[in-house]
Amino acid sequence: MPSTGTVAARLVVKRRHIPGPFTLPLALVFAQLILCLGRGSAQANSAAKPDQSAPPGAVSMVTISPEHVTLAAGDIKQFSAAPSGTGGYDKGLTWSVNDVDGGNAAFGTISKSGLYVTPYPAPQSVAIKARSTLDPAKWAAAVITFAAPPVARGPSLTVDAEAAGHAINPLIYGMNAYRQEDPNNESAEVAKAVRLTLNRWGGDGVTRYNYKLDISNHGDHWFYENIPNSNTQYPDVSDFNTQVMGDRESRTKTMGTVPVMGWVAKSRTMAGSFAVAKYGPQQKTDPYWKTFGNGVKPDGTKITINDPTDTCMRVDASWTEGWVKYLVGRFGDAAHGGVAIYSLDNEPSWWDLNHRDVHPLPFTYDEVTENGMKVARAVKEADPTAEVSGPVMDYWFTYFYSMKDLESVKGTWPNVTYDFSDRTSHGNLPFIEYYLKTFRAAQDADPKHTRLLDYLDLHTYFAANDAGLKPAGTSEQQRAVLDSTRVFWDPTYTDPNLRDPNNYAQMMPPMMIRRMKQWVAADYPGTKTAITEYNWGGQEHISGAVAQADILGIFGREGLDMGALWGAPELNSPAMFAFKIFRNYDDAGGEFGDTSIAASSADQGKLAVYAAVRSVDDMATIVVINKTFGDLKSDVVLAHLKTEKQAKVFQYSSTDLKQIRALPDAVVTRESKKEKTSALKDQMFPAMSITVFVTRVK
């Protein structure tokens, strides 16, 4: 908690350390203390009159309303305040929460108009201040105390084993190259704790990776530079090989990335694509190596005449084939513990931004599709047992158009002009559909009928309010983020940023996993689905754990085949425990089942429920997620599912963010012997919590 600069604020912060007893409730005592101290004048109550001795044009006092209020997490409250004074004084105010201007996620936020949004979890109380901008010594304060809402009846939950289930692919519990950023050497412990299934080597930084030299170009992320590491034993010792070996130790499948863009770093010499000596002064230069710039002239125009061979060299599919053959020789083929899956590059949407020094033009249908097929064929030639994923597209509108099409748009909606000639010249098909159809045609035309594309692979950074990769926000933001997990499946969910690509005025339900399956069914049946980058933020917070657990449950229920979180969680962080719920809830290998069972909630926005049977020991596993800020009590009905009379219970909540707690067994009550229906009666689901029930199926 930050230090505070006023007596009133210190009293609020240190409230638990002031001795009692108090006749009045503690919060009201502090309300009075703050109100008395908060005027910045001799008056100590709301009825006080302005100081007539103040000079002209001066503020003598500030009043605020209400002065005390009790709220619950998730509430929003409007405060009003007004300065009083003499002359033509400035009536401006600055709002703060616990002396933090504008507040923060821990204390709640307050707008310039005095609208307060509560945090979650909420402290016992906070102080709101309205301070005169003309005379900061004049301010008024209000106290908010927080009360937990009473336990409410939650929505009905039903698990029904009669409906046919489907296999849950364990690859949905994957992560992205967490070994690359591991300052605390925690990666092995994280992999063990979550029993990691998939580790993807990906991102913008590997698009130009040269396996022979163990070096990549950093592109737009850092001055388009080749920055050599200290390695002298390449290619056998390299960043990628280190990941493969670590994955083998933890029995994790490795997913690599191979170049489709066609450029890799050419040497281990420190080099930049926009040398100041060659291309002149630039807006920014590398603060550690000032000889290289960002490729933007001082007047803001981009340098477009650079020589791409300053740092990189062209490669084709034969280069990739050589890499895969090298990996097979060193680690074995995919069927025998080698690299299992190869991703066809990374996010072509941004090649002309992140890699504009070598790829200044936006991607086209033909470039990504035709070059992707050549590289896929090379991978399959080198390792017929390996799988391939593509096109690894991340931008909503590039699911439907090429970036060449999109960059032709000029003007501001609705007054725009455009030339979508790339799409129209390819049968007016959405890009993803064209991509799938073309790969299918290549398989049909191949005498060996070789499948070149095993996974339709997309990235989905669709958390509400651009929350991905950011800390948790206020309760309002947390609620929006949790609601936005519906983006994967719900036909009624829309996002203002995800509009109908053919009618920008209309929002379009993304329902990403279901849409991917629809594309596959229509254009290339048998192709699996993968989301190899996503992030919903808040990994340090219980709300981030709840969102992550909800996503993993959705992945399994909806039948996604592979998933990989970008931004792997730290050891013992809330987000890590979300993975443990599904992979190792009891620290003894207890995992969510591998065959999905139908599970439904009368209100998934409050309580989400996911169920599966574990085939190795016939255990039914049920995960219930409370996405609200209050405790809920519900029955879990088990229909057409005969189980033992007891269920093991494990729970993760804000009560203890450092472990999943084992709770007393729950009683399974038989409701109908004929229908094999039973129930877990009156189960308590704490606010923002994840609960696992485990019981044997008879």
SSE layout and pairings?
Layout: H1 7-13, H2 26-37, E1 58-65, E2 68-71, E3 76-78, E4 80-86, E5 93-97, E6 100-101, E7 103-104, E8 108-110, E9 115-117, E10 125-132, E11 139-146, E12 152-153, E13 157-160, E14 174-176, H3 187-194, E15 198-200, E16 225-226, H4 239-249, E17 253-258, E18 263-265, E19 271-272, H5 276-279, E20 285-286, E21 289-293, E22 312-314, H6 317-331, E23 341-344, H7 351-354, H8 365-382, E24 387-393, H9 403-406, E25 410-412, E26 415-417, H10 421-424, H11 431-445, E27 455-459, H12 475-483, E28 499-500, E29 503-507, H13 512-523, E30 528-533, H14 542-558, E31 562-565, H15 574-583, E32 595-601, E33 607-614, E34 619-626, E35 632-639, E36 646-653, E37 656-672, E38 677-685, E39 689-696
Parallel strand pairs: 2-11, 12-35, 13-35, 14-15, 14-31, 15-17, 17-23, 23-24, 24-27, 27-30, 30-31
Antiparallel strand pairs: 1-4, 3-9, 5-6, 5-10, 7-8, 8-9, 10-11, 13-32, 16-19, 18-22, 20-21, 25-26, 28-29, 32-33, 33-34, 34-39, 35-38, 36-37, 36-39, 37-38
Helix pairs in contact: 1-2, 6-8, 8-11, 11-13, 14-15
Overview of the molecule:
The protein has 698 residues and is an alpha/beta fold. The chain has three domains: 7-146, Immunoglobulin-like (Sandwich), CATH 2.60.40.10; 152-164 and 592-696, Golgi alpha-mannosidase II (Immunoglobulin-like); 170-216 and 229-264 and 309-583, Alpha-Beta Barrel (TIM Barrel), CATH 3.20.20. Strand 10 and strand 11 form a beta hairpin. Helix 8 (365-382) crosses helix 11 (431-445), helix 11 runs parallel beside helix 13 (512-523) and helix 14 (542-558) runs parallel beside helix 15. The protein is globular.
